Amino acid sequence: MKMEILKQSENGKPLSTALLTLKDVVIARGDTRLLEQISLSFNTGEFTAIAGENGCGKSTLLTMLSGVEMPSAGTLTLGGKKISLLSANQLAKQRAVMAQSASTPFGFIADELLHLARYQYVESLEQKSRLIHGIAEQFDITHLLARNIQTLSGGERQRIFLAKSILQIIPGDQNESLEGKLLLLDEPTSALDLRHQKLVMQQLVALRAKGLCIICVSHDLNLISPYCDRLILLGEKQCLADGTPVQVLTTDMLSRCYHTQLNLIKNEQKQVFVTH
Amino acid sequence: MQLSSAAKHSNNLGDNSSDNPRDYSSDYRLTPVVLQLINARAQRKRIGMGILVVLLLICAYVGLTRGSLPIDIEQQLKYFISGVNTVESTVENTAANTTHWYVLSEIRLPRVIMTMLIGALLAVSGCAMQGLVRNPLADPGLIGIAGGAAAAAALSMTIVPPLIPALESIWVAMWAFGGALLSVWTVLRFSNGPQGVSVAALILAGVAINALTGTVIGAISYVASDDALRQISYWTMGSLAGASWTLCGLIALAGLVAFTGLMKSRNALNLLALGEKEAAYMGLNVTRYKHWVLWLVAFSVALATALCGIIGFVGLVVPHMCRAIFGVNHKVLIPASALMGALLLMVADTLARTLFVPMEIPIGIVTSAVGAPFFLYLLWQQRRIFGGGV
Q1: Percent of chain A at pLDDT above 70?
Q2: Is the pLDDT of residue B389 over 50?
Q3: What Gene3D superfamilies does this protein's entry cite (chain A) (predicted)?
Q4: What secondary structure does DSSP assign to A197-258, as a single string?
Q5: How far apart are CA B202 and CA B205, in angstroms?
Q6: Which of B8, B10, B34 sits opposite A146 (nearest CB)?
Q7: Do A267 and B12 touch (CB under 8 A)?
Q8: Using the beta-carbon criterion (under 8 Å), do A195 and B28 form an inter-chain contact?
Q9: Å from B259 to nearest chain A CA?
Q10: Interface test with B, best of A95, A116, A208 (most B CBs within 10 A)
């Protein structure tokens, strides 16, 4: 595991570009210790997928990475600064989170919700609308903007919340680089149809190319592994594997992680897919 | 090498042209239509606000003219502008005009203004409270304001009467205000954990405090004299009869502070309505804003309750109605609630004064009698929404 990080740093990605680092982090929920002493680093312009069994601490890890809850032990730094020292405001402009099963008890209009995402930016309403419409088009939600969130389907809502979290961190000028920004996603594609799964993945890759660091929890390894740069498997209270999807996805590793026998198919592009 | 995995992927899974996401969205390029919808909604809201203002003015006019002494406003204005020398000025006319003018300027006008201010204050507080706890069924009474005020008022009327009997109303108001704040403080004490104020604990602590204050009132009622008992029950039903220009000024000041404070935190309220975690993700200092909004609401409602007794249902029903008409964005919801609250309390108070002239019904009875059935009607209309688990 440590070898992987070392190798990456030799491959022209020095460790100093690490945007988010965890050092000896212990994560607990209640009395259960979910993850023991993990150390990881995530780089600018890197798309990382995190997978693992139900209840292994993926979502809790994501919450810790977001900085709104502190880990039980260990240090967490974002852009070289301890995350607990950043103000809520600074943090919100630097990292966005899309939580699992995002919904609201009050029926906001989609357009209002997206405006809220940029409430801390000082910019004209026109500029805000322009940004919102740009993102809305990218995620195919333009036709939903005037709808009440509560009346939307799960997949439509998911796309709106994804667009909302991206709007929270993008700079006013869409061509500006996204270096230093962090996007944390918790199963963003779980309710999407095939077309929108593909659309969302392509948009994420496009954002990654602009320098955005994406960390995405997902169970859909077949969907995410062709797109992501790095796959982390969590299990046995630690990082079981960390590397490119092809390196990580082996039958041994999968059976160790998921406690069941799974088969792999390789295509001519050397991409690996999991079957039963 | 890894950066090109998307390109690799698209080469792999078919032709490049269909992989461009913009091709898909061209089917849905309905931006003008969507914009139209959004603008139409904004237009509807503006019209709704206009209607509310007009209705409020009409009600204020009716409230000023009707009562145990009907007053002709036009005549009074003429009298005011031209002094005593009205065209058909006779001795009786002048005397009548003076009486009418006194009733209008010193009794009815302050009462109408205070009614509107209290209605707006209660409604805005209810609106903030519901947004804060993310439950459209919450009202400021939830955190023990009404209970604490009533218990302290009952105490001040029986066990600790004022030293100077003439100052009784001020004495009772001070006790009620203190009692309300004390119970809010207690509720907050119990709901404040290491993770900040927990909404569930807030509601439960409020229920407990309300039960406790109910017991205090019950015990006092049991030992109180008949006169004091009558006074206590009259107080808990609320009344705006004590209106004066001084109180108007006080309420206007509190109202201004509460309204501007809540309008300034409208985005915070919107974010809190999305959920506390979501609000924290989006950069809100959740604990700070929760305390700020809670205390703002507590002070406003405690003041209103101390001066007018318990006026129920305005803080509960009005934001609910406004949400149905104006949507959930607090930018519109707060001013709309203020207008609607002023309007409703104005109607209720005019009814309370005029239904059984010269007798006056306590305002709390009118608001509950009108508010409760209306609220049931709203629930009936929206039971599908509430069935969905609010």
Answers
A1: 92
A2: no
A3: P-loop containing nucleotide triphosphate hydrolases
A4: HHHHHHHHHHHHHTT-EEEEE-S-HHHHTTT-SEEEEEETTEEEEEE-HHHH--HHHHHHHH
A5: 5
A6: B34
A7: yes
A8: no
A9: 20
A10: A116
The end-to-end CA distance of chain A, in Å, is: 27
Number of domains in chain B: 1
Asked if B34's CB is within 8 angstroms of A145's CB, the reply is yes
Q: Which pLDDT score is estimated for B117?
A: 95
Is B28 within a domain? no
> CB–CB of A141/B28 below 8 Å?
no
- DSSP, collapsed to helix, strand or coil, labels residue A73 as strand
A93/B283 Cβ within 8 A: yes
Q: With an 8 Å Cβ cutoff, are B24 and A199 in contact?
A: yes
Domain extent, residue A252, equals: 2-275
Entry pTM: 0.83
Query: Which of B281, B287, B322, B337 best tests the A interface by mutation, with the highest count of A CBs <10 A?
Result: B281
The string over B375-385, giving b where at least 16 C-beta atoms fall within 10 Å of a residue's C-beta and e elsewhere, is: beebeeeeeee
Residues of B in contact with A119 (CB under 8 A): 267, 270-271, 282
Specify if B310 maps to a domain: yes
Q: Is B113 part of a structural domain of the chain?
A: yes
pLDDT for the residue B4 = 43
Q: How far is A153 from chain B (nearest CA, A)?
A: 14
For A129, counting Cβ atoms within 10 Å of its Cβ (0-12 exposed, 13-18 middle, 19+ buried), the class is middle
| Beta pairing, strands A47-52 & A230-235 | parallel
Instruction: Say whether B327 and A107 touch across the interface (CB within 8 A).
Output: yes
Other beta carbons within 10 angstroms of residue B390's beta carbon come to: 12
Write out the DSSP string of A92-156: HHHEEEE-TT---SS--BHHHHHHHHTTTS---HHHHHHHHHHHHHHTT-GGGTTSBGGGS-HHH
Which residue among A92, A107, A208 sits closest to B283, beta carbon to beta carbon?
Answer: A92
Q: How far is B5 from chain A (nearest CA, A)?
A: 6
**Contact call for residues A47 and A225 (beta carbons, < 8 A):** no
Which CATH number goes with the domain that contains A102? 3.40.50.300
Identify whether B25 is part of a domain. Answer: no
Phi-psi region of B157 (alpha: psi -120 to 50; beta: other; left: phi over 0): alpha
- Distances, alpha carbon B267 to alpha carbons A94, A113, B196, B254, B264, in Å: 19, 11, 20, 21, 8
Taking contacts as CB-CB distances below 8 angstroms, the residues of chain A near B271 are 116, 119
Q: What is the pLDDT of residues A242-264, one digit of tens each?
A: 999 999 999 999 999 999 999 89
| Top-confidence residue, B226 or B385 | B226
Reading phi first (left if > 0) and then psi (alpha if -120 to 50, else beta), residue B283 is in left
Identify the domain containing residue B194 by its residue range: 44-387
Task: Give yes or no for residue A8 having a pLDDT over 70.
Answer: no
Cβ distance A83 to A91 under 8 Å? Answer: yes
Contacting residues for B33 by C-beta, under 8 A, at least 6 apart: none
Whether residue A91 and residue B283 make contact (CB cut-off 8 A), yes or no, is: yes
Q: Can you give the CATH number for the domain in which B65 is found?
A: 1.10.3470.10
Question: Is A142 within 8 Å of B271 when comparing Cβ atoms?
Answer: no
Separation of alpha carbons B224 and A179, rounded Å: 72
